[in-house]
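WARN retry 2 of 3 for item q-0093 after timeout on previous attempt; input resubmitted unchanged.
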Amino acid sequence: MTLWLLLFCLLSLAAQTDNPPLIVFAAASLTNALQEVGDGFTKDSSIPVKFSFAASSALARQIENGARADVFFSADIDWMDYLQSRKLIQNHTRHDVLGNRLVLVAPADSKIVLKIGPHFPLAATLGKGRLSTGDPDSVPVGRYAREALTKLDVWNDIEARLVQADSVRSALAFVDRGEASLGIVYATDAKIDNKVRVVDVFPDNTHMPIVYPIAVTAVAKSDAIKFVDYIRGPVGDATFKKYGFTALH
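OK item q-0093 returned
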C-alpha cells in the first residue's frame, strides 16, 4: 500500500507540473465576477487559473518589470495601450470585452441626497467629510472621476478633499467603513457591497467610455488564448452580466 501511495503522489505531482496554472492579472473591479468565470473555465477545461487583482496601472507596471503573467485584463484602454506600445502583449489577441458605469456612493445609512449635474454642490454636501476614489494620476476609476468632475466644474472644489486610493476596491472600502462620506466607484463595485448605496450615476457624456480590454501577454502559455475565448463566450457574458457589466463584443 505504501508503494502505491508513493506512486500516486508522484503521478499527482507530475500532473501538476505538466499543467501549471494560467496567471491572470486583472483589474480589482473584476474580482468577484472573474473568480466565478475562472472556476467555470477550470471545471470545463481542467486548466487551473491563478488571479492577481489590483489597479490596472500597478499590474501593467509589474508586467513591464518582468512579472510573469499570461493574460492582462485592464479597466481602461490606456494601460493596455501602455503594454502594447512596449510589445508586451500579443496584439491580435486584444479585445474590448466589457463596459461599466461610474457612480457616486455613500454609506448605506447616509442621508446624503445629490443629483449629479454641472456645478452640483459636492463640496458643500461633503462638509468636513472626504471623497474617496482611485488615484487620478494612475488608477483608472480615479482618471474617470477626475474627468467627470472637471467637466462638471466641481473638481477644483474637492481636489484637496480627495482620498486617493490605490484601487477601486480600496476606494469602496473607505466608504464601506464610513471613513469617507462619499466615493466614486464603478456601478459593479457598488452592486456587491451592501454597506454602500448609490447616490447617483454620472452621465456617460461626462467621461470617456469605461472599457475593459483583455489580451494575452507576449510570454503567455499557449492555453492563455483559451481563457480569453472563454471570457468572450456565452458563459463569460452571462456571468459578467449578472455582476452588472455590459458586454461590448
